């Protein structure tokens, strides 16, 4: 895998060790520009640590990182103003309102003039559905509202890349829909989005690409539709004569069986046109033929179970994503990145 200008984020051989414990191990990641990539994995799989290394908040033990074509962390000052990120919850002043907090953040945005700040704050609050709570003190916000305010801070100006760590954490269904709507708008505007999550349904509903992390390793990566299609090569045929269909297919050495919803055909070793050709030549009426896709839950279980089988005798110790080296502080910086920075 090589870095190209078509990559918004790229990592090669990424590794992070905390006091002798491996948190991320030899991760390769390639996020195409314009994609919405779901970084999927259970808590402790290395998602947040990987994101922190992408943003330069944590120094890798090994490997290389590029963000928008620039080496990280050396290119951070040049690149991060074009990046918006929400990592492990935002840091705001509890006795200031949501609007006042965003105004303080906006003053650190190099591309925002003082005259443009009120409009930018108003638009950001509206995008995340917090206009009605703009004047409420931050300490009175629910967890979901705090998440949305952090997202608003990341979106005060247009960003080429937006990185969100568990953005629907603490949100009710309506709040989660708002986040999905914002992500869809970002994609339509041409931004690249990386969303880390352990919620399979959220990733399947939101993302165009996926990378599955398991015990600090990427065990599957690619376009979501391709991964789901490859995971279950089955054709479902609707026909009024299922017995005859199965018989004719088996005569052509095509594996098939009768199911409650039609005839299921194994496409592992045969192409879909060959199946339909065999049925037509046998005079079998076909009402519908559609390829079935694996659900993301099934795909996730398959790739993680395969990884467990391969490493049954050697399971590396893991640390939670939120176990970090001492940090110098937290908050939302002028580059739209909310999170903690590791001390050097």
Automatic annotation (TrEMBL):
Keywords: ATP-binding, Nucleotide-binding, Transport. Pfam families: ABC_tran. The keyword Transport applies. Residues 311-344 are annotated as: Disordered. One of its GO terms (molecular function) is ATP binding. It comes from the Bacteria. Residues 9-240 form the ABC transporter domain. The keyword Kinase does not apply. Belongs to the ABC transporter superfamily. This is ABC-2 type transport system ATP-binding protein. It comes from Tamaricihabitans halophyticus.
